[in-house]
Design goal:
Largest sheet of chain A: 5 strands, antiparallel
CATH superfamily of the largest domain in chain B: Thiolase/Chalcone synthase
Number of strands of chain B: 14
Structural class of chain A: mainly beta
CATH topology of the largest domain in chain B: Peroxisomal Thiolase, Chain A, domain 1
Mean pLDDT of chain B: 95
Helix content of chain A: under 10%
Structural class of chain B: alpha/beta
Largest sheet of chain B: 9 strands, mixed
Strand order of the largest sheet of chain B: 5-4-6-7-1-8-13-12-11
Helix content of chain B: 25-40%
Number of helices of chain A: 2
Strand content of chain B: 15-25%
Shape of chain A: globular
Number of helices of chain B: 12
Number of strands of chain A: 8
Mean pLDDT of chain A: 87
Number of domains of chain A: 2
CATH architecture of the largest domain in chain B: 3-Layer(aba) Sandwich
Distance between the termini of chain B: 58 Å
Low-confidence stretches of chain B: none
Largest interface: A-B, 26 and 32 residues
Order of helices and strands of chain B: EEHHEHEHEHEEEEEHEHHHHEEHEH
Distance between the termini of chain A: 38 Å
Strand order of the largest sheet of chain A: 6-5-4-7-8
Oligomer: heterodimer
Strand content of chain A: 35-45%
Low-confidence stretches of chain A: 137-143
CATH class of the largest domain in chain B: Alpha Beta
Bound molecules: zinc ion
Shape of chain B: globular
Radius of gyration of chain B: 19 Å
Chain lengths: 143, 351
């Protein structure tokens, strides 16, 4: 119960990958921030929230064998750092695949999945995870 | 009333499958024979992090990718399912947020066993036709459950499809709809119960066949159309046998039903069944094609539709999202133990 409001405030970015763009340096970031980590004070008043396309490629990934207990059903599970088309790097779970299907550079796209639930009676948290985009075109993602 | 129709559509089916042999092996049943009898060679299984909401979102996003409609112009969104993750808190609230249609719209969840999605389509037709909203979204999605060892375990699967209903630039016009409803206790699930119950012998003749036949005949009578006027026909498909038989009884040929018969590959997707069958038909339909569809929901009722594909279909961006064939291609097959774990039939002891 206690975490529901915090999750709720972050839902727009979690559901739709709303990040932010610094119009001083032109870089994109996710999750949204108040000021640009590169430009600091120069970015004040020059940032805007931007919906990221959710498509990108795997920058780095790892298979987690001793991870969060709430993911025990999916163990071992894959967590990757994804470089989005806009250039922002995002960490997230990669699903519907095995680690052997993936390599650095594998194209992925964001999808909405259950992240966790607060027990069987509590709130269900939803957010982005990544699925591989099948190269043979069987599961094309965003254009 | 304005003329209304489908502006866009999108589908989604989970990546995992289980075959009937694998289920039969566990319960001492000839699964292969069971599958053959049901005409089901595999059924879709949702991943542990999928539910009706995530399936509805994926279908709705696939629908939005195929059109240039501003989500803020969507005035209504209805999700029909018998497996809404929350008993109280509409699935549609999360779907509306996930396609950026919120907050200026009306949302509600629909329930009518397996025809909740088509009931939502009818409501959307009314709202758009009456000029109350510019666009409305109807989604049929389910992650249905059969009790372990029950006959339903061989068929109950997961999937969903979404339809954007509007009055302009429609790829298919919804020319007519007719419903047939009675009080028939063929299948139910009481509040708080995990698995549904079915009334055994009640499920065939007096339920599915009576309602689908009456819905289908009722629509044909009201429109003056006959089966041979249609290019395609889609019927609710709890297994492969029922829709095949009902199509024959109504006078439709296997050629007409082939494109929309998905149950052999993905099982019974409940509220997703006719919506997914329609999506598969729209994947290949051409301008001028006529589509006949009858959904069935236990309890019991049927919704019949008379649909015509328009010239807009020629320029519709079908390939902006995966087709049904693409969604059904290269699935991952899992064993019963993995299936039981995914579906929460077995769970780890946790503190
Ligand atoms: Zn900057």
């Amino acid at each position: 119960m206690a975490t529901a409001p915090r999750y709720w405030r972050e839902n727009p970015s979690r559901y739709n990958m709303v990040g932010f763009k610094c119009n001083n340096c032109g870089k994109y970031y996710f999750p949204p921030r108040i000021i640009c980590p590169l430009c600091h004070r120069k970015s004040v008043g020059k940032t805007e929230p931007v919906k990221l396309k959710g498509t990108g490629a795997i920058f780095s990934f790892t298979e987690v064998h001793e991870g969060m207990d709430e993911h025990y059903v999916q163990k071992p599970y894959i967590v990757a750092m994804v470089e989005l088309e806009e250039g922002a790097k995002v960490t997230g779970q990669v699903i519907d695949c095995d680690a052997c299907d993936l390599s650095i550079g594998t194209k992925v796209r964001a999808t909405l999945r259950k992240l966790s639930e607060e027990g069987s009676a509590g709130v269900i948290h939803y957010g982005y995870k990544f699925v591989p985009v099948r190269e043979n075109g069987e599961r094309p993602g965003d254009e | 009333m304005k003329d209304v129709g489908v502006v866009s559509y999108g589908a989604y089916v989970p990546h995992f499958r289980i075959v009937p042999e694998e289920i039969g092996k566990v319960w001492g049943v000839d699964g292969k024979a069971m599958g053959k009898g049901l005409m089901i060679s595999s059924k879709s299984v949702p991943a542990p992090d999928e539910d009706t909401i995530t399936i509805a979102v994926e279908a709705a996003r696939n629908m939005m990718r195929r059109c240039a409609v501003d989500p803020k112009d969507i005035g209504a969104l209805y999700v029909g399912s018998e497996s809404h993750p929350y008993a109280v808190k509409p699935s549609g609230t999360i779907v509306a947020e996930a396609i950026e249609a919120a907050p200026d719209l009306t949302v509600a969840d629909f329930e009518f066993a397996c025809k909740a999605g088509t009931a939502a389509i009818q409501a959307c037709m009314g709202l758009v036709g009456g000029g109350l909203v510019k666009y409305a979204v109807a989604i049929g999605a389910d992650t249905s459950q059969g009790a372990p060892g029950d006959a339903l375990e061989y068929s109950a699967s997961a999937g969903g499809a979404a339809f954007l209903i509007g009055a302009q630039d429609v790829i298919a016009t919804m020319d007519n709809t007719y419903s047939y409803t009675t009080d028939t206790p063929d299948f139910w699930r009481r509040e708080g119960q995990r698995y549904p119950r079915h009334g055994g012998r009640f499920t065939g003749e007096p339920a599915y066949f009576r309602h689908v036949m009456s819905g289908g005949k009722g629509l044909l009578e009201r429109t003056g159309m006959s089966p041979e006027d249609y290019t395609y026909a889609v019927f609710h498909q709890p297994n492969g046998k029922f829709p095949t038989r009902v199509a024959k009884q109504l006078g439709f040929s296997p050629e007409q039903t082939k494109a929309g018969l998905l149950v052999p590959q993905i099982g019974n997707t409940y509220s997703g069944a006719v919506p997914l069958g329609l999506a598969a038909v729209l994947d290949e339909a051409e301008p001028g094609d006529r589509i006949f569809a009858v959904a069935y929901g236990s309890g019991a009722g049927s919704d019949a539709f008379d649909i015509t594909v328009t010239d807009e279909m020629a320029t519709f961006r079908r390939d902006a999202s995966p087709t049904m064939n693409e969604l059904m291609a290269s699935p991952k097959y899992i064993d019963y133990a993995t299936y039981a774990k995914f579906k929460g039939k077995i769970a780890k002891e946790r503190d």
